[in-house]
Every structure is written in structure tokens, then in C-alpha cells.
Amino acid sequence: MDNHTSFGEGVMPESLVEKKEILTYILYIVVFLFVMSRAYGIANLLRFLFRYLNIGYSDRKMKSLDEKWFNIQLFKIINRINITKIEDARLIQKGLNEGHLKTSSFFLTSSWGDITLPMPLRRKIFSYLMGFTLIILGSVAWYVQKPIIGGYAKFDYKEFSYYISKDKLFITSSNDYDTPPDIRSKEDCRNALKAIDETSILAIACTKFLDERESYQWWLDDKIKSISEAKNDLAMLAYVYLTLGVIWLFSLVQYLRAGNKVREYKASSEND
């Protein structure tokens, strides 16, 4: 007993250290991807690094172009507004300063491209369809996992289904959805088997429930675990797809609205 305890105590710190290292690596990857996203790619990241180290072009025209590029990228990173021309950056910054445009209008719009350019109709239709497809996939995954009961192994018998966990049993009928299932313990089953017909669904389920064979218990553990994992995986897929779909559609609507505001403000500024 003492040897078993000391062995467990020795393993636990090592597993915790290993998990901590994995989480640290994941954190580094997340931070790197976040920085890459904010910098709009590794090329931009390297250029900012070279600029910080005072490494630049010796050619005068290249220096001028690089300066213009830097201002555009800096504007995109600070405001998260995607533009390709320095003139558009100046115009939008002026609109932000004067209150004609609001920073919140550009939230999650940078991934869709230049905010000053209208989206082609074909791409707009495809983008909406993609967003709705993600939501449909999430809804299907949620619908599929909903009837799965975690922590139980399911067995079908004629119009009945009985569910067995390590210490509980209940039976449902495909003909009766309104009556809540009667959950039974192993003691309930032992008492019931003395008084019921051995061919009844309750007797069959209880006999399965009370089976103490080691091989069966191992099989039952694996079945319960696989069912619970399947339910959790489907639920996770549902959350991921639904979240991605909502973000996709929200950012698309944001981009289209913000683009219209920018082009309207641009047209009014040119008229003035």
C-alpha cells in the first residue's frame, strides 16, 4: 500500500510538469499567431524588425516607397482597418478625428480586404452562403449530440432502449416520450428480478446491469467512455461551427456597412 502511494506521488509532479510544458508551447504558438495576425504576415513582421534595427534601403526612391508602405501598415495595425493607399488612410483618419467615422464600425473588418473597395456580388453571395453553412453545420452537430446521454451505454431492444452506467439504469420507450424514465440502482434490480418475468425488458436490462464479469466491465467502461467522448466532440464541433458562423456573418455585415460609410464619406469629401 505504501509502495503504491509513493509511486503515485512520484508520478504526479512529472505529469504536471509535462502538462505545463505543453501549455507553455501552446501559449507561445497562440502569441506568435496573434502577432502574425496583427502584423498582417511574416513579411510585414520582418520589415518592422528591420526598421527597428535601422536596416533599410540605400536607394532614395525605395526609401520613399518604404516610408509610404510603413505608414500604410502602421495605420492598418493601429486601427485594424484594411486599406492599400496612403490617401485612403489619410481620409479615414480625418473622418475618425472629425467623428464622421467611428472606430467601432471597423471591428472585425480587416480580414475582408480593402475597406474602400465594394465587394463583388458573386463574392458577397458566396460569403453569405459560407457563413450560413457554418451555422447549419453547427446546428446539425448540436442536433446529433442532443439525444446522446453521456455517462451511459445504450442498448436497444425492440421498441425500448435501456441505458446502463456504473451504478444506474433506466429504460425508455419509443412509444412514450412524455413519461420520465424511472432510474434504478443495482439494489432495485436485484429486488425486481425476484418478482418479474425474466423475458421482460426490465429483467433483460437488470441482468445486463448486474453482470459483474471483469471482461464485461472493461467493455462497459470503454463503451461509456466512447459514447461520452462522442457527445463531447459533437458538442465542441457545434460550439466551434456556430461561433465561427456568427463571427463570419457579423464581420461580413460589419465590412459591408463600414465600406458603404467610407465610400459615402469619401464621395462627400470629394464634392466638398
Structure description:
The protein is 67% helix and 6% strand. It is mainly alpha-helical. The chain has a three-stranded antiparallel β-sheet. Helix 5 (121-145) runs antiparallel to helix 8 and helix 6 packs across helix 7. The longest helix has 58 residues, at 214-271. The radius of gyration is 31 Å and the shape is elongated. The termini are far apart. The model is unreliable at 1-13 (pLDDT under 50).
Summarize the SSE layout with pairings:
Elements: H1 2-39, H2 42-52, H3 60-79, H4 86-98, H5 121-145, E1 153-157, E2 160-164, E3 169-173, H6 186-193, H7 201-209, H8 214-271
Helix pairs in contact: 5-8, 6-7
Q: Specify the biggest β-sheet.
A: 3 strands, antiparallel
- How many helices? The count is 8
Biggest sheet strand order reads 1-2-3
Report the span from N to C terminus.
88 Å
Roughly what fraction of the amino acids lie in strands?
A: 5-15%
What is the mean pLDDT?
82
- Could you list the spans in which at least 5 consecutive residues all have pLDDT below 50? 1-13
User: How many extended strands?
Assistant: 3
Shape: elongated
Order of helices and strands: HHHHHEEEHHH
How much helical structure, as a percent, in the residues?
55-70%
> For the CA atoms, what is the radius of gyration?
31 Å
- Structural class, judged by helices and strands? mainly alpha
List keywords for this structure.
three-stranded antiparallel β-sheet, 8 helices, disordered N terminus, 67% helix, 272 residues, mainly alpha, 3 strands
